[in-house]
Amino acid sequence: LGEVGPFLPRVAEFLRQRFAWRRSLDLSGVLLVTPSGRANRRLLELLIEQCAGRKGEPSLLLDPPEIVTAGRLPERLYRSEPGVEKVEGLRALLLRVQSLRAAGSESIERVVRHPPDADDLLGWSALAARFEQLAVDLSRFNLAVDDLPEKVQGAPGTTERLQALAALQCEYRKALRDLGAIDAIEARFRALR
């Protein structure tokens, strides 16, 4: 695409040159991957601009591409298991909150110093989000939370804390299994296996 000018406008121009035919720009079979949701929206705007009539040329009909962020690309590279629902987003977070609250204060206190009060939904949601982020971060290194007690050696008490963390993750997975579901991270691990 060359190195002159902003990148996204060059991509839009390239796609127009490559896929415009007669009176349409058919990108329906194209998957575009961008670094962010903002880039997704901007690229779509630029494609719409590319289809507007230019200097006496007729406008083009746009059949838009699928545009995903790099973080969503792995799910496009494998098929989900038949009959297994994938739980993501808010639903996964709420299921994690439920499993953490059901675990009991003793289990939670082995992992965090000050667990949220029983009625502090915001606190439980923040804790669940931290656990989810840990699982995501570990998955980038092909590790699961369950792997931590075996892989990490540290100060006294570390092993017990990591075992408690792994037990909480197991409770979350059990809640998923009870629904006949898996989360995005587990789906990726299964696809890799």
Q: Please trace the helix and strand order, writing H or E for each element.
A: HEEEHEEHEHHHHHEH
Integer average pLDDT: 88
| Low-confidence runs of at least 5 consecutive residues | none
Helix content: 40-55%
The overall strand count is 7
Could you describe the largest sheet, including whether it forms a barrel? 3 strands, mixed
Radius of gyration: 23 Å
The coarse overall form would be elongated
Structural class: mainly alpha
End-to-end distance = 37 Å
Helical segment count: 9
What is the spatial order of strands in the main beta sheet? 1-2-4
Tell me the β content: 5-15%
Report what the structure shows.
The chain is mostly helical. Helices cover 54% and strands 11% of the residues. Strands 1-2-4 form a 3-stranded mixed β-sheet. The chain has a two-stranded parallel sheet with strand order 3-5. A two-stranded parallel ribbon has the order 6-7. Strand 1 and strand 2 (24-26) form a beta hairpin. It is elongated and about 75 Å long. The chain starts with 6 loop residues before the first helix and ends with a helix.
